Amino acid sequence: MSETKNYQTLVRPILTERSTLLKEKHNQYFFVADLDATKTGIKKAVEDLFKVKVASVRTMIVPGKTRRMGRSEGRKPDWKKAVVTLEAGQKIDFTQETV
Length: 99
Description:
With 99 residues, this protein is an alpha+beta fold. 29% of the residues lie in helices and 35% in strands. The chain has a single domain, classed as RRM (RNA recognition motif) domain (Alpha-Beta Plaits, 2-Layer Sandwich), CATH 3.30.70.330.
């Protein structure tokens, strides 16, 4: 898989308080993934980009919310969340540059 395809599969990491706790406790990392991405594609992208071994991948589609701005009403798009569990002893450091 090419590196540009990996960057298209994984949009960005999700860095919240909950994701930080699960990273420390269960070695799980959260990513926003492309809606068309599969579990095997996400696994290959994480292994290629961060040079780690992935134990499992769970995905869920988060429905978009309705938003208002004055009288007009719009809708945010749906997005896919990927929960990647790494094998024991593996770690991803988001502060380092991966290029």
